[in-house]
Specification:
Blueprint lengths: L11 E2 L1 E6 L4 H5 L6 E4 L2 E5 L7 E5 L2 E4 L4 E3 L5 E3 L9 H17 L4 E6 L6 H5 L1 E2 L2 E2 L1 H15 L5 E12 L2 E4 L13 E4 L3 E4 L5 E3 L2 H22 L7 E12 L4 E11 L24 H17 L13 H5 L9 E8 L6 H14 L3 E2 L5 E2 L1 H25 L4 H50 L4 E4 L11 E3 L3 E6 L7 E3 L10 E6 L2 E6 L5 E3 L2 E2 L4 E2 L5 E4 L3 E6 L15 H11 L16 H26 L4 E8 L14 E8 L5 E5 H24 L1 H5 L21 E9 L1 H4 L4 E8 L5 E12 L23 E11 L2 H5 L4 E6 L8 E2 L3 E2 L5 E10 L4 H9 L1 E9 L21 E2 L13 H41 L13 H28 L8 H44 L4
Parallel strand pairs: 2-6, 2-19, 9-18, 9-19, 24-25, 43-45
Antiparallel strand pairs: 1-20, 3-4, 4-5, 7-8, 10-11, 12-13, 12-16, 12-17, 14-15, 17-18, 18-21, 22-23, 22-32, 24-26, 26-27, 27-30, 28-29, 28-31, 31-32, 33-34, 34-35, 36-44, 37-38, 38-39, 39-43, 40-41, 40-42, 40-44
Helix pairs in contact: 2-4, 9-10, 11-12, 12-13, 19-20
Length: about 1050
């Protein structure tokens, strides 16, 4: 190939387009807000947590596909009004697809990259759905139309290839044979650059042929994803169209490569804990996407003049194949898709930043030309000269046998070259036509069988891969499983699928499904173990996660909308069977709770991954069990507000009883590492058949590299709330607290006390109780937190070799404090006492005491884990071991000079003299009033002044103490009411019993509350009455 001289030094920036999709069902259910706005080609995104923070970006193209559209009679999405702002598929193609096509026809390499998080609309923009064709099918249709329009002055040849990159392995999606172990190899040549060795290229001459090849590739991709236990959202899909244009008159051939790339989901895995994993993050799964980001960043730095030593093209398979598209010989367009929902803000902002970097990249595209026709003419001319030379040799009668033989060999070689050049395309095309006819015949047969028999239809997380595989259930008995040796077997592959997994029976137009021993079969979310009759549109899950929709006989198929039975529907059904319902609020109301929706969708997303991890653990004999839990489902903070909920995975070693809690991000990372171990194990087993006969064998890995293992750490088992309001009145409090686990289970009973005390630790008496908490402002407050005993520890009841600690943090303590560890005891005696003191009680501390609780955290310890210790470096303590709280210092003021200080001292001295004189006058008045009081007392019968009566303040204090103790019982009853819920398995009778029990609890709660308030009213009325009687002395 050679390039035109005029093109050698031209630069061309990557064109970037951004498309904003509509809200999906999840976002609509959550009541999401749109945080993206668009004006012309400028996009602004607003931080949902702070509306004042806005970030704006400008791109070559911006498409608003979020709103303002309707569906016409042919199911096309079009603008509601002519000229509306909604960008449909045609609008996107006219800007992007037409430009790519024009570049290819001019002889340039062209690349289209689709980037964005999973579910942001990448596949819809690239492939489309139904009548709404995407960029790829529209581009292919327009390409062949352009070829037909220009067939008079050029001959065109189109070759089609389709491949997938998953976990750094290249899979040929059009391959006829079995999948190559480890994938195809990527090689490099000086002329061609990087290429995939052995990748099948199929010649095409019409749009239907290309569509058929894409369907075949999608089918292969679906099957490969099932066999490899792969997540399609983590794979990259590349379609390569090679266009060869032969211009006879100019004796020139132009050859272009059109790369259409649907990149893997770009979302970042995040968790509330965001702890680092000891094992490598993301593994090879994320390598290509990470390296692509590094390449784009490096090229963007080059474009703005920064010195870049190395651009890491060679660090991943994807960047090797895209080297020409990024900074090389190609005209490149990137379409970045994003969700405008507030719950996707972080991912959408990341996508916009990524796209902004990409638009700085400068490529150097050239027209790829070669003198192919000239070569044919030169070969023919050389053959003519060789024939003339041979004839001259014959005429001269010279005996030159050797020379004649050499000339004839050259002549034959040239003829072969000419014939190869002219016939290669026709041969390839004929072979492709034969394949296409066979594929067409099989499709026709499949459609015929769909109108005759029931079948099961695959459902995939990627909508593009759903409905691709149809397994027909003809009359009679059919085994389904790994084994395909029998003529009456249906072969499927996947995690947890046995050789003979289940049996379908189709008799008298009734289809039944019978699981075989040890196999896992789920119908409509319910696990079955006996013969079950299937109904039209029943949902089947075979093994860990092979999901199928049962389609009955044609007579049973009405006008049902099958599209509602997507992958999420299957998982939601499974979650409902486990008691996890969509948006179920803590109050039990039927209204969807938006705070739980994100957690619910994370839950159903991770359910199949957890099932696969458990299956891999079983097959690899790891003895590890994985279980999904909702973190903080029933827990609250010190103010009683709900904590942010998240998904965690509880990991339990069945042998040692060790337990780990993994965040969502950590589990997903480990899941991919488990897949690598599992696939390696499968490869070794296929090489050594003897090992399979001996049953599953444990895979030996060093502990530090085993994704199923982690060092043990303390686990947060649950929390209890000890409310501090009584301290504001200096009233002691003694409570038995329920320690509730993350999902509301009772983990233990904790006996705790709050004891107001003196600075030496002696408990205060009733006379020290305050009626008005503000009296304590500016004064010293001492109290002790006493943790006496823990009872009924479920954590230790499950395994006696465990221990516990209690942790807590009070007010402005920067570090948590912990009790000493206690081991092997279900009812351990803690006897832990901590003395706190505020030297000058502030309003802030008083507000805290009246509205907050100290959250007591129960931590579980295991053999080999480090105890939790209190870090006292930043905590202020006295020599007696008293913890000082409420240390807010005086407000800082600007430094004063000497003159200002002397003026202030004089003013203070004057104020002091005035206060002394006021104090003296008040003392005189006090003496006078005391004399009058004594005189009045002496004149009253009964000499009341001699009787010693308790002060009204003390009476008020005692009444309040009784009230607070009674309210403690009321609060406990309220907590029981909150936790009281019917069982998921309750029938009508069970629900009636639950209603009766709930009514009784409500009645008890009401009576306790009424009694407490009534007692307080009576006490207060009696105190007021006595006070009035006493005040009658002066009346």
């Amino acid at each position: 190939m050679r390039a035109k001289a005029s093109d050698m030094h031209s630069k061309d920036c990557v064109k970037v387009a951004v498309r904003v999709r509509p809200f999906n069902k999840r976002e609509r259910d959550a009541g999401s807000r749109c945080v993206v706005s668009m004006v012309s080609s400028s996009i602004t995104i607003q931080d949902p947590r702070d509306p004042q923070i806005r970030r704006s970006f400008c791109f070559d193209y911006a498409y608003w596909s979020h709103s303002g559209f309707t569906r016409d009679h042919s199911s096309l999405y079009v603008p509601e009004e002519p000229g509306g702002r909604y960008a449909d598929q045609d609008s996107v193609f006219q800007d992007l697809g037409e430009g790519i096509l024009e570049n290819a026809l001019q002889g340039y390499n062209a690349t289209l990259l689709a980037y964005g998080q999973t579910g942001s609309g990448k596949s819809y923009s690239m492939m489309g759905y139904g009548a709404n064709k995407g960029l790829v099918p529209k581009l292919c249709a327009r390409l062949f139309q352009a070829i037909r329009d220009n067939q008079e002055n050029r001959q065109c040849q189109v070759f089609f290839s389709m491949l997938e990159i998953y976990n750094e392995q290249v899979v040929d999606l059009l391959s006829r044979g079995s999948r190559t172990l480890g994938g195809l190899r990527v090689r490099e040549e000086q002329q061609r650059g990087f290429y995939v060795e052995g990748l099948r290229t199929v010649p095409c001459e019409s749009t239907p042929q290309v569509e058929q090849l894409m369907e075949q590739g999608t089918r292969t991709r679906t099957t490969a994803a099932t066999h490899m236990n792969a997540n399609s959202s983590r794979s990259h899909m590349l379609i390569i169209l090679q266009l060869k244009q032969i211009f006879s008159k100019e004796s020139i051939t132009k050859q272009s490569n059109i790369n259409l790339v649907d990149l893997a989901g770009s979302e970042r895995q995040r968790s509330s804990g965001s702890e680092a994993d000891r094992l490598k993050e993301g593994t090879a799964i994320n390598l290509s996407l990470t390296t692509l980001g590094n390449v784009i960043s490096a090229l963007a730095d080059v474009a703005v003049g920064k010195k870049v030593v190395h651009i890491p093209y060679r660090d991943s398979v994807l960047t090797k194949l895209l080297q020409s598209a990024l900074g090389g010989n190609s005209r490149t367009v990137m379409i970045a898709t994003l969700s405008p929902a507030d719950i996707c803000y972080e991912e959408s902002l990341s996508t916009l930043r990524y796209a902004e970097r990409a638009k700085r990249i400068q490529n150097r595209p050239v027209v790829n030309e070669s003198p192919t026709e000239r070569l044919v003419k030169e070969l023919k001319a050389e053959n003519a000269r060789l024939l003339q030379r041979l004839s001259r040799l014959g005429q001269e009668g010279r005996r030159a046998n050797d020379e004649t033989k050499e000339l004839r060999q050259l002549l034959a070689h040239n003829e072969l070259q000419i014939r190869a050049i002219q016939t290669l395309w026709e041969q390839h095309l004929q072979e492709a036509l034969k394949d296409w006819e066979q594929q067409y015949a099989s499709i026709t047969q499949e459609r015929r069988m769909m109108q005759m028999h029931p079948y099961i239809l695959n459902i995939n997380e990627d909508t593009q891969l759903s409905g691709v595989v149809k397994l027909f259930i003809q009359e009679g008995e059919w085994n389904i499983g790994l084994c395909d040796s029998s003529s009456r077997s249906i072969s499927i592959k996947g995690l947890g699928i046995q050789d003979r997994h289940a049996v379908f029976r189709n008799e008298q137009r009734r289809v039944t499904l019978t699981p075989l021993e040890g196999s896992k079969v789920i119908v409509n979310g319910i696990s079955i173990c006996q013969t079950t009759e299937l109904q039209h549109l029943d949902r089947l899950i075979l093994g860990s996660n092979c999901t199928y929709l049962f389609v009955g006989y044609p007579s049973e198929r009405g006008g049902d909308d099958w599209s509602r039975y997507d992958y999420d529907y299957f998982q939601s059904e499974l979650a409902a069977a486990e008691g996890i319902h969509l948006g179920e609020s803590s109050s039990g109301s039927s209204q969807t709770d938006p705070s739980l929706l994100a957690v619910f969708y994370d839950y159903i997303k991770l359910m199949p991954m957890v099932a696969e991890a458990n299956q891999m653990s079983q097959e690899l004999s790891k003895g590890v069990d994985f279980k999904l839990e909702i973190k903080n489902l029933a827990l609250s903070d010190s103010k009683g507000h709900d904590l942010q909920k998240d998904i965690v995975v509880r990991v339990t070693s069945k042998g040692s009883k060790q337990v780990w809690m993994w965040s969502k991000a950590k589990f997903i990372n480990r899941k991919f590492l488990m897949e690598e171990v599992y696939q390696q194990h499968q490869a070794e087993q296929s090489e050594d058949n003897e090992s399979t006969a001996e049953g599953p064998m444990a895979v030996a890995l060093p502990r530090d590299k085993d994704p199923f293992w982690d060092p043990v750490e303390p686990l947060l088992l649950g929390t209890a709330h000890l409310w501090l309001q009584s301290l504001a009145f200096r009233i002691p409090l003694e409570e038995q607290l329920e320690v509730l686990g993350s999902e509301g289970t009772e983990e233990a009973i904790l006996q705790a006390q709050l004891v107001p005390c003196t600075s030496t630790g002696l408990p205060l008496g009733e006379d020290d109780i305050l009626i008005d908490p503000s009296e304590i402002l500016g004064r010293r407050l001492d109290f002790q937190l006493v943790l006496e005993q823990c009872c009924g520890l479920r954590w230790i009841r499950e395994a006696r070799n465990r221990g516990v600690q209690i942790g807590f943090r009070l007010f402005d303590c920067s570090q948590p404090l912990y009790t000493p560890a206690v081991w092997h005891n279900v009812n351990p005696l803690l006897d832990h006492r901590v003395h706190f003191a505020s030297l000058h009680t502030s309003q802030k501390l008083l507000d805290y005491l009246q509205s907050s609780a100290v959250v007591l955290e129960l931590w579980g310890l295991q053999d080999g884990c480090i105890h939790l210790s209190s870090s006292l470096e930043e905590v202020r303590m006295t020599a007696d071991g008293i913890f000082i709280i409420d240390e807010a210092g005086p407000t800082e003021t600007a430094p004063l000079d000497t003159a200002e200080l002397s003026c202030l001292v004089r003013a203070l001295q004057q104020d002091l003299e005035e206060l002394k004189s006021v104090n003296a006058s008040l003392r005189k008045e006090n003496h006078s009033l005391r004399d009058q009081l004594n005189t009045a007392r002496n004149g009253v019968e009964g000499v009341r002044g001699r009787s010693v009566r308790p002060s009204c303040d003390a009476e008020f204090a005692r009444a309040l103490k009784v009230f607070y103790h009674s309210m403690t019982a009321v609060r406990a009853q309220l907590q029981r009411l909150r936790r009281h819920r019917p069982s998921e398995e309750s029938d009508l009778l069970g629900l009636r019993l639950f209603v009766d029990e709930q009514s009784r609890l409500l009645r008890d709660f009401s009576e306790q509350l009424e009694q407490s308030v009534s007692a307080l009213k009576q006490d207060v009325a009696a105190i007021v009455r006595r006070k009035r009687e006493r005040s009658g002395i002066w009346s």
